[in-house]
Write a structure and sequence with these properties.
The protein is globular and about 55 Å long. The protein has 5 helices and 4 strands. With about 140 residues, the chain is an alpha+beta fold. A hairpin with a 2-residue loop joins strand 2 and strand 3.
Amino acid sequence: MIEDHLIQDFKAQAAKAEAQGDWKTAAKYYAHGLEQRAVELALINSAQEGLSSKYEMQAIYDLVGDKIRDTFNAQVVMISQYDPQTNKIYHHYAIESGQHLHIPNWHPIDASRSKVVLTNKPLMINQDEINALLDTNKMQVSRS
């Protein structure tokens, strides 16, 4: 999980600060790690409460997607299913800028999701990576 890497970074920074005798900074990094873990646990607990009351699969996708959006104040959240037989994906949940998107049917997998499938690791895309995808025509932005 991306969060695990974040917590590992906090721990590494705290250890570095400890080695330098900077206890105040070390405590700050440990506190950030604990806060991050608390956010993760709250998300899991909230999703579990909702899941226990809903059995329809789409309702579960919607519940989890909404919780991720709200918890991380995310502008874009997608929950997709990958079919290795066809190398296609199906988007069960998609929201962008507060607008739920209905994306029917299976679609060929794009470059960023291919990276996730190949590495089996989460992917966080920053602005430089978005620009690179746009420059190589691996991603397009439509303007309305």
